[in-house]
Every structure is written in C-alpha cells, then in structure tokens.
Description:
5 helices; Dna Ligase, domain 1; 18% strand; single chain; Arc Repressor Mutant, subunit A; 5 strands; three-stranded mixed sheet; two-stranded antiparallel sheet; alpha+beta
Amino acid sequence: METNNTAIEILEKSGIKPTIQRVIILEELMKSKMHPTVDGIYSKIRTKFPTLSLATVYNTLEILERHKLIRSIKVESEHTRYDYAYDDHIHLFIKETNEIIDFYDEEVVALIKSKLKENNYTNYSIENINIELNLVN
C-alpha cells in the first residue's frame, strides 16, 4: 500500500486539483479496508464535513475512478462499492456477510500475466488486475 504518499500528492501526480472534498474522500478510501458504498463514504465523512453533499461524493468518485486511483466493485445485487486501487489483488466476496476481502497473491498475478502472453495477448498491456471470487458456505 502507498503509505509514503499523501492524498494531496497522489491527486497532484494524477493531474487532479486537490480540493478538500477530493482529499478527504481519497483519504477515506486509502484507509478503508471495508470497500464502502457511496452512502458509506458519505456518512463517514459527513460527520466531520457537514456541508459535503452526496452529489460531490458521486462526482469525486467518478473523477478518481477515471484517473484510475480507485476501482468500483459490483457484486451480485449489492450496491457499487469502492476500493483504493494501489496494486493488483483479488476480491473475495463472502455472500453470507456481504464482506469483500482483499487477497494478495503475487504468484496468481504472475500466472495471469504468463497465461496472457502464452495465449498471444502480447499486443495488450495490463492496466490492472482485479479478480472477484464469490464464496458461499
């Protein structure tokens, strides 16, 4: 995880003006392991910034995703959830609890890259790897 860069630095590197709203929304996603929904992000931030509007949260998430700083995750009939996109990983969705867990495995990532090359997808470069596994008990 990018711990050396602040949200302001990350936004500036991506060519995004670091407004206070963008900074606080990105910071929330950087520290969250829960893959929050828009409503979850809004509720959490609104306690500290009561003037924040839901529309601002939606607009900011759209900008952050367009610049590949976050990823949206859509699982089953769940609302869209968001994840800070700092590296390649797999999402494990636990159906019973609606929990999304980040699973890191460099061997799996290497295997995917190798398989793509093996199957002649050499004209493409991998922008990111985001695998979702839905688990049931």
